[in-house]
Design goal:
The chain is α/β, with parallel strands linked by helices and 363 residues long. The protein folds into 2 domains: 89 residues, Sandwich (Immunoglobulin-like); 197 residues, no CATH class. It contains 10 helices and 14 strands. The termini are far apart.
Length: 363
Amino acid sequence: MNTANKYTVRKSRRRLWFGLGILFCATPVLAQSPQSPPTATPSDAQQLTVPQIDQQPAGTISGTIVDPSGAAIAKARVKLAREDKSPDQELQADDGGQFSFSNIAPGPFRLIATAAGFATQTFSGTLHPGEIDIVPPIALALGAEATEVQVVAPRAEIAEAEIKVEEKQRVFGVIPNFYVSYIPDAAPLDTKQKFELAWRSTIDPVTFVLTGAIAGIQQAENAFSGYGQGAEGYGKRYGASYADLAVGTFIGSAIFPSILKQDPRYFYKGTGSTHSRILYAIANSLICKGDNKRWQPNYSNVLGSIAAGGISNLYYPAKNRGAALVFENAGIGIGATAAANVLQEFVIRKLTPNAANRDPSKP
């Protein structure tokens, strides 16, 4: 190969390598241009599609717990309940009945208030964002156990009221009939009431009139002849008759009943067969109710009759005194009590206009 041809070949090789070098260097630039947009990953797409929620400001709920009169209830318990699943909150009101829940998310709520002796009360409302909600006073009604209060008057007051009724009991509206109770479960009398009833009975004007009538009959029959006749004899008989009545009443209806805790009154039966009522009336000359409302031997009446007979020896004529007269009078007194009880059971009740009803439900 000649020199010209060699030169031409070298020149062609240079051009080829030069072109390949330019092409090699330009390839990265061509690979990077133009750039393809980045492909979004699933997590990026999700983040782009989730809306942004603005958090609402919290609020406060406060109020006062009161009773039906409007007075504050100290230390009441208040529970805050929500319709969502957030936990309930509970606190105790202060001495002024005031309470406050702070930093509460807006939305519907319920307040449940409780206090000892009161019924539970519920208040419902809705708290708005950022609101300071002062609810109306929550009034608690008295609970059932607090409203069912049984008021029982003292026994002495009940007995006093019953005595006032008994003191209006008069046969034909005139003759005293104080020692009969038409209330089967009448309250027992205390010592003061037993003496008051005895005193009231002995100073009743009708008692003086009846005593005068008895003395007149005795004088007409010349009973206790040692007293003589005339005004002096009548006066002695009158005094002795009144002394018998007063001594017998106080000893047999006040002193012994107070000592022995027995009731001096006759308790009207009014029901059952005639036979049972007669037996009941006669038995009540020997038995009586105790202050414990139990039946027991009537020591007061028996001992009272004997004691009154013994005291009568001090003022009866000498020939009418003695132990025989004492027990004779005691026996007469017991028999007279039995007869009087039978009359009470069947007759006197009908003749006593102001007698108390046995059954309060009947007019």
